[in-house]
Amino acid sequence: MSQSNKGLSNWLLVVAVLALAVTPLIFVRGAEFSGSDDQAEKAISEVKPGYKPWFKPLFEPPSSEIESLLFALQAALGAGVIGYAIGLYRGRSQQQRDNE
User: Fold this and answer.
1) At 48, is the secondary structure helix, strand, or coil?
2) Which of 23, 28, 54, 85 has the least CB density, counted as fewest CB within 10 Å?
3) In terms of Cα–Cα distance, which of 37, 32, 34 is closest to 60?
4) CB 67 within 8 A of CB 61
5) What sign results for the dihedral spanned by CA atoms 19, 24, 29, 34?
6) Residue 99 contacts residue 93 (beta carbons within 8 Å)
7) Residue 49 and residue 78: Cα distance in Å, rounded?
8) Which residues contact 70 (CB under 8 A, 6 or more apart)?
9) How far apart are CA 76 and CA 73, in angstroms?
10) Sequence-ordered list of residues with C-beta below 8 angstroms from that of 44, at least 6 positions apart, any chain
11) What pTM value is reported for the model?
């Protein structure tokens, strides 16, 4: 595969990922996108109204926006670590092939 075909393939993948992320926001108007924690809390309160949690969180973010930011940062950090590890191992294997 030539370099220009690789570049085109990469851009098509980026466009596909963006389309997958934006399409639900366009076609599902007025929907409330809540996290699974909120949905689980609501379901538990419906099943057993007097339920008391076993423990309280160590840190409670002041707003849902900050909670979303922390979640996104955690996901980005995890993706960065995984990407670094994959790149490192791929580079090592490429270097071994070049040395042989």
Assistant:
1) coil
2) 54
3) 37
4) yes
5) negative
6) no
7) 37
8) 61
9) 5
10) 51
11) 0.51
